[in-house]
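ok new one. same drill as before - structure tokens go in, u give me an amino acid for every spot. 538 of them this time. try not to just spam alanines like last time pls lmao
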């Protein structure tokens, strides 16, 4: 039996010209069953355990990524999904992994160093002991300054990084004021989230200058190797107190010269070495990195599976999250959390034997961290090429796409991605979850994750508003992105919300309303739109 909420916005959902006002129906009985299964019989932390402690990290095309994919296929089949597979796309490029990292200050006194190697950089040839040299190279003009000074040295590539006293707690939830601010529309360029740094030892990376940064990094790598540098150390992007934020030091495509062995260490240890060098006190560092490139397969994959619909089984609701991670931790908040939530949402729907008119499909994306590559390839292959906007047959059959990719935080609402026509629909769907903290709709666009691939071709794609918790302060692309930083109750809440949204999208009489089709988007225009994920201050 389906019941209807009586307290909705005065906005009407226009289904067709001249359509009468109608309230959105919500199946409260099924919502109750979804909540009960997701909150009282949750398996989400079990999914997370296998994706992190057992099979993390999951750098795209690494052995860990593939092992996690194969485990997920098994779990989805065990749940009872059909059509479960690793759907290949590509080519991606080289896989990379490391099996050992050790760094020690040997002189003037012994101290272990906290750090990890950067992705797509080679390992050392055994244990390396060498003197460091401070050579912050920020532009090609700096090459001449350090020419002839790097042979046999471990190069400290960054300037000294300040470590100011912490004046705020690292974790937080969105306040009423934060949510109220998101509710109001923004106009003009302020709608675009600000960029965030991405490149260790380099300028901030945005879609417009990323290629220039890669070219500079390649030239710097070539210079370091030609000068005989034996390794490179970075102080990381940000973080202190043992938390390090960093990602790649080389190129997964192999388009640019690889660096020497390249690692990041905590800034307190980095700064100590620089101070010693400034005082001309002899320093020696011992470094060992065992790293491997994996070129046996260049194609990557997405994980897909579905719960078939009945009367409208050719129409599909898609829920998704990116499956890949960086390697400093085990990829828990970014984004095993999202993958585990989506697996759990599908389990919940299957466990309650939800009667679905439309098919509900799960898609866990590879290559998100390298530019939404898996979801872009999937959308282009199945629905449309955003460069030409030539639509494929299944394009009209997508009811909607829901994405989860901002860490462990509880869902507090939905970014409407400029689609105000879905506001009354989502308002009704949110009503049963207001007591669990979900009460905000934001008309704004949000960037940096896989819903953009769907939105780019005119499909209704949405990312949820989430509590930031410690995402930007402790876990995002860091060595602390691990199971222990996950809030179990938040993932349970998110599983219930997403299962309910998927159910209602699959049983709603009409498809979710769509914005007008976008015009063909040249590659440069798409890069402008693919901004980094919003930080906790946005």
């Amino acid at each position: 039996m389906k019941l209807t909420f009586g307290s909705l916005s005065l906005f009407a959902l226009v289904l067709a010209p001249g359509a009468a006002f109608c309230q959105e129906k919500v199946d409260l009985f099924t919502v109750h069953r979804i909540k009960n299964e997701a909150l009282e019989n949750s398996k989400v932390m079990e999914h997370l355990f296998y994706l992190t402690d057992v099979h993390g990290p999951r750098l795209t095309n690494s052995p860990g990524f593939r092992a996690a994919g194969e485990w997920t296929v098994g779990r989805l089949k065990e749940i009872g999904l059909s059509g479960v597979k690793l759907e290949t796309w590509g080519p991606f490029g080289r896989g990379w992994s490391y099996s050992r990292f050790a760094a020690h200050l040997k002189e003037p006194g012994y101290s272990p160093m906290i750090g990890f190697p950067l992705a797509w950089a080679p390992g050392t040839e055994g244990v390396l002991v060498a003197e460091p040299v401070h050579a912050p190279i920020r532009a090609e003009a700096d090459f001449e300054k350090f020419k002839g000074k790097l042979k046999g040295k471990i190069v400290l590539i960054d300037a000294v990084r300040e470590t100011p006293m912490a004046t705020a707690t690292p974790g937080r939830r969105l306040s009423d004021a934060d949510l109220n601010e998101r509710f109001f529309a923004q106009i003009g360029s302020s709608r675009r989230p600000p960029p965030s740094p991405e490149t260790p030892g380099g300028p901030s990376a945005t879609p417009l200058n990323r290629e220039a940064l890669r070219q500079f990094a390649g030239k710097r790598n070539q210079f370091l190797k030609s000068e005989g540098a034996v390794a490179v150390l970075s102080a990381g992007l940000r973080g202190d107190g043992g938390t390090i934020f960093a990602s790649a030091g080389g190129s997964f495509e192999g388009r640019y010269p690889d660096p020497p062995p390249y690692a990041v260490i905590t800034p307190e240890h980095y700064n100590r070495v620089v101070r010693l060098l400034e005082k001309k006190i002899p320093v020696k560092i011992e470094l060992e990195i065992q790293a491997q490139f994996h070129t046996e397969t260049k194609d990557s994959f997405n994980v897909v599976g579905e719960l078939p619909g009945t009367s409208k089984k050719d129409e599909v609701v898609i829920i998704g999250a990116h499956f890949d991670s960086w390697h400093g931790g085990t990829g828990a908040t970014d984004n095993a959390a999202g993958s585990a939530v989506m697996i759990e949402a599908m389990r919940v729907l299957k466990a309650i034997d939800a009667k679905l008119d439309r098919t509900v499909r799960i898609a866990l994306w590879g290559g998100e961290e390298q530019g939404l590559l898996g979801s872009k390839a999937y959308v282009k292959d199945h629905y449309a090429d955003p460069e030409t906007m030539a639509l494929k047959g299944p394009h009209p059959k997508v009811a909607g796409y829901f994405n989860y990719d901002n860490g462990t935080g509880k869902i507090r609402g939905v970014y409407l991605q400029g689609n105000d026509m879905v506001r009354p629909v989502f308002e009704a769907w949110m009503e049963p979850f207001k007591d669990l903290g979900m009460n905000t709709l934001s008309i704004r666009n949000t960037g940096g994750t896989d819903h953009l691939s769907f939105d780019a071709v005119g499909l209704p794609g949405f990312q949820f508003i989430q509590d930031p918790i410690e995402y930007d302060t402790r876990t995002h692309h860091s060595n602390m992105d691990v199971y222990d930083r996950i809030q179990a109750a938040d993932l349970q809440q998110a599983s219930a919300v997403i299962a309910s949204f998927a159910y209602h999208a699959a049983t709603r009489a009409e498809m979710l309303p769509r914005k007008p089709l976008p015009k063909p988007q040249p590659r440069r225009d798409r890069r402008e739109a693919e901004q980094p994920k919003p930080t906790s201050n946005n």
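The chain has a mean pLDDT of 91. and btw The CA atoms of residues 195 and 309 lie 40 Å apart.
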